[in-house]
Amino acid sequence: MPDYYDILGVSRDADKEEIKRAYRRLARKYHPDVNKELGAEERFKEINRAYEVLSEPETRARYDRFGEAGVSGASPGFGDIGDMGFADIFESFFNGFAGGMGQQATRRRSGPVRGEDLRLDLKLDFREAVFGGEKEIRIPHLETCNVCNSTGAKPGTRPRTCPTCSGTGQVRRATRTPFGSFTQVSVCPTCNGEGQVIEDKCESCGGAGRKQETKKLKITIPPGVDNGTRLRVSKEGDAGLRGGPPGDLYVYLFIEEDAEFHREGINILSDLKVSYLQAILGCRLEVTTVDGPVELTIPPGTQPNTVLTLENHGVPKLGNPVSRGDHLLTILIDIPTRITAEERELLEKLAKIKGDRTGKGGIEGFLGGLFRG
């Protein structure tokens, strides 16, 4: 049987915030859009199930007491217990079930309910992530029906009291078990716990009180975001039920690779190819950065793979855009594969001045190969 604490990597006495942090970290790591490895999707489902159980105090308490049976509604194996779950039997036996939990559930269902949170994955190009800015997105979500004002009833009509439960939203049923007779309270199947039924449904929303709409939004991308950065857009999730507040929209950012630049934290890395003569003699070159062209000094005698730094041309720190990283350029020396006769003559003179050997396989062989190529 799965151990949900082990799945999230937390101790059994972890508080709610610790569980939430563990879930976010693991969900980001194993999300199918990010992790394509075999088994990542199943791992992601396990993580979500573990968080679903441990994030709610009531379900967590039942899990701690009865394990998986306490949260899955599994039958304990007695034929005449009917639909009661293992945890329901013990709640009723020890705590005098008598409708208490059912009434609480009905009160929750009949009052305002907050709308669901939504998630949107958004791709940005490299420079958008560096500098941020405004981005227009389209998000499908549930909006309150303005025709019926979220009642679900046709204008001019009202929902009526449910005849099955008389408006309580719950039904009671006597159940015999090996422990004795108990009264089981469950959600009314006619009104689904609402306590009311709609005879004339609103034609605009079909009685749901909400309608699926696609909305355009402009969101602000802060400078310095990276893969996995999550932005919260308040009150742009689904509309609530029965006058409840809307949920939030969470935008997860994914950064596209750039052909020229590579990012490490707040630093930007790139390669710069110079000729062997430029490396020997030194020079000043115009190089490309995310800020545009910048002049860079190549010191005389620069060696291959030397890293030169352009300060404050990297990525702004997220939340503190005034502070920026650096642009690090790795110098690559371009050795020509072909040279002219004049260039060969000059290089041979230089070799004699330096006292370098010029036999086959040495300078002469090397230069001859360049010339023949």
Polypeptide structure, described:
- Strand 10 (262-264) and strand 11 (267-275) form a beta hairpin.
- The model is unreliable at 73-108 and 365-373 (pLDDT under 50).
- The chain starts with a helix and ends with a helix.
- Strands 10-11-17-14 form a 4-stranded mixed sheet. A 3-stranded mixed sheet has the order 1-9-8. The protein has a two-stranded antiparallel sheet with strand order 2-7.
- It has 11 helices and 17 strands.
- With 373 residues, the chain is α+β, with helices and mostly antiparallel strands.
- It has helices spanning 4-8, 16-30, 40-54, 57-66, 69-72, 86-95, 100-110, 126-131, 276-281, 341-354, 363-372; strands spanning 118-124, 133-144, 160-161, 170-177, 180-187, 196-197, 210-221, 230-233, 249-255, 262-264, 267-275, 283-289, 292-298, 307-310, 316-317, 320-324, 327-334.
- Among the domains are: 1-72, DnaJ domain (Helix Hairpins, Orthogonal Bundle); 262-334, Urease metallochaperone UreE, N-terminal domain (HSP40/DNAj peptide-binding domain, Sandwich); 341-372, no CATH class.
